[in-house]
Each structure stands twice: as C-alpha cells, then as structure tokens.
Design goal:
alpha+beta; Ubiquitin-like (UB roll); three-stranded antiparallel β-sheet; 2 helices; 26% helix; binds zinc ion
C-alpha cells in the first residue's frame, strides 16, 4: 500500500511508520485498536491508508448498531458527573488564577 504523502501535509516533517493506539467512537460506545499509521516526527500528525480509514468507519458503524461481535470488553467508560465535577472545582473557583497555576498534563 502506498500513501499519497511522503512528507507531513501539515508541517512538511518526516513521516515514520508506527503502530498507534486509535480510539473510535460510535453511539455511546468506544473501541480501541492498535494499527499502523504514518506518524509525523515533528508535529505528531497521523496519516492512515484509505483501507484503514474505511475500517475505522466500519468499526464506528458497528458500535452505533451495538454489534459488538469481534470486540473484547475493555473495562467501562464513564462520563464525569457534573455535580461531582463542580464539587471538585468549587474551592478554587473563587480565587483568581495566576499564569503559573496552569500546567500541561
Ligand atoms: Zn507534521
């Protein structure tokens, strides 16, 4: 299979064949798979061959239809409850943030 790009279409960086973890959503469901992608060394952009993109679409549709054949359970996915979230953030809500209070995680 050939990709239409030799260089990253976003930044022109070098692409390298890598196995990546792809997360797909369909309806309320999520599926994870390990798949080969061309990954940009510079900006991290991922490029997938057309057949892989079609496979992603197929998986999304399966999830939407709740057709879970061929999928193994992998723990549960949760949505953080708004009440719980507000309780966690309340103590800091009233004070002004300084720039140094922010960090990358
Ligand atoms: Zn790039």
């Amino acid at each position: 299979m050939m990709l239409p790009f030799k260089k990253c279409p976003v930044c022109g960086g070098e692409l390298k064949d890598k196995v990546v973890e792809k997360i797909l959503h369909g309806g309320n469901h999520t599926a994870v798979l390990l798949i080969n992608a061309e990954v940009c060394f510079h900006c991290g952009e991922r490029l997938y061959p057309e057949e892989t993109v079609r496979l992603f679409e197929k998986i999304r549709n399966k999830l939407k239809r709740q057709d879970l054949s061929g999928f193994d359970p992998l723990g549960l996915a949760f949505k953080v409850d708004k009440k719980w979230f507000n309780k966690q953030t309340q103590p800091t809500a009233n004070r002004a943030f300084k720039l140094g209070d922010y960090c990358n995680v």
